Amino acid sequence: MKELVCKTSNTHQYPILIEKGIKDRIASMKTLFAPYHKVVIITDKNVAKKYLADMERQVRAAGPKVYSIVIPAGEESKCMGQVSDIYDELVKCNVTRKDAILTLGGGVVGDLGGFCAATYLRGIDFIQVPTSLLAQVDSSVGGKVGIDLDAGKNLVGAFHQPEAVIIDPLFLDTLDDHYLMDGMGEVIKYGCIKSQGLFVKLMSYAYHEDLLDDMEEIVAKCCAIKKDVVEADEHEQGLRRILNFGHTVGHVVETFYKYKKYSHGQGVAIGMAQITKKTEAEGITQVGTYDQIIALLENYGLPTKLPKMPLEKVQEILFTDKKFENNALHICALEKVGRAQIVKIQKDQAIELFR
Ligand SMILES: NC(=O)c1ccc[n+]([C@@H]2O[C@H](COP(=O)([O-])OP(=O)(O)OC[C@H]3O[C@@H](n4cnc5c(N)ncnc54)[C@H](O)[C@@H]3O)[C@@H](O)[C@H]2O)c1
């Protein structure tokens, strides 16, 4: 088992436990569950079908009473209406500050359930059990929780760190290939920004099975990078921005196509390629980096070409982006594979990223 400890303040730290088969050992985690009278498992319909009954049994055997809330699968559930329904259920179950939420699912369940935990009774504990690759390597660590508004994604949220993150790479055996490759977009990002070793390793897999065999190690490497960055900058004032490599452009692409044509990982892949093309041309990035990134993304079937979008529309989407500060945008650019820096771009120059 790989065990990391994420220390976000002098008073809060939590374990990130990563091991194949750990989902079947949750019953033995009596110390983790000892503080709670009840645990409410929040999950979605797809994950519930495969894993909820087992998880209920495991948590109950660890000590607390167990209740479950099953939401429809998909991004549409990350909304205010769903939050309100969950609050109602928490009231019905008489959940108090001595109780906890356990999120069992992908990034949607983690963000939504975490947001409910951050806000219900001004904050109750929660435990993340991520089941998609994207959630295992990214969204479950770091405490960003939130929901979408009609006006845009993740516009309402909080920083609320979990009490533990329990990651079983065996969950990925039932994850659709499309979502697996989507998560690979984020995995590749970690290689780009912080680990040439990971980048090179990812280049070496010819078969899916080999990749899945090594998943414990890959997920642990990504979580270790994320944990280090989050510990240094929990509230995204500086260093944490490197985790957004490719995201500014990716977010515009996702939004322009109304989240239907490109998934998050695909958007990030396009963004990483496009930014690197630009920064390499400007001499910020070592020559050849763009070609290396394209080759790796293509290896995992991820898109690399910026689709044609009218620039007025791009500008409109970009300018409603919450990441503009004092008329400037901070984007992550690579010096070379494995080393990132933050570059400041003035608002009137930002559109150049899309040409
Ligand atoms: N909080 C953060 O730091 C952060 C970071 C990145 C992304 N996100 C958010 O994460 C969300 C996307 O996460 P996602 O890609 O996991 O999407 P998701 O939660 O919608 O999961 C994708 C699909 O896979 C299914 N699924 C999940 N695990 C499964 C399993 N083991 N077996 C079978 N099916 C399974 C789900 O039911 C869903 O249909 C977005 O809302 C995004 O904004 C948050």
Mind describing the biggest β-sheet?
A: 7 strands, mixed
User: What is the strand arrangement across the widest sheet?
Assistant: 1-2-9-6-5-3-4
- The coarse overall form would be globular
Mean pLDDT: 95
Low-confidence stretches: none
Bound ligands, each once: nicotinamide-adenine-dinucleotide
Radius of gyration over C-alpha positions, nearest whole angstrom: 20 Å
CATH superfamily descriptor of the largest domain: Dehydroquinate synthase-like - alpha domain
The number of helices is 13
CATH topology of the largest domain, by name, is Dehydroquinate synthase-like, alpha domain
Helical residue percent band: 40-55%
Name the helix and strand elements from N-terminus to C-terminus, one letter apiece.
Answer: EEHEHEHEHEHEEEHHHHHHHHEEE
Secondary-structure-based class equals: alpha/beta
Termini Cα gap: 46 Å
What is the correct CATH architecture of the largest domain?
Answer: Up-down Bundle
> How many discrete domains?
2
Quick one: how many beta strands?
12
Describe this structure in words.
The protein has 355 residues and is of the alpha/beta class. It has 2 domains: 2-174, 3-Layer(aba) Sandwich (Rossmann fold), CATH 3.40.50.1970; 178-354, Dehydroquinate synthase-like, alpha domain. Helices cover 43% and strands 21% of the residues. It contains 13 helices and 12 strands. It has helices spanning 30-33, 45-62, 80-92, 107-119, 133-139, 177-194, 196-203, 208-213, 215-232, 247-256, 264-281, 289-299, 311-319, and strands at 2-7, 13-18, 38-44, 65-71, 100-105, 125-130, 144-149, 152-159, 164-167, 324-325, 328-336, 339-346. It has a 7-stranded mixed beta sheet, with helices on both faces. β3 (38-44), α2 (45-62) and β4 form a beta-alpha-beta unit. α5 (133-139) runs parallel beside α6 (177-194). The model has no long low-confidence stretch (mean pLDDT 95). The structure holds nicotinamide-adenine-dinucleotide (NAD).
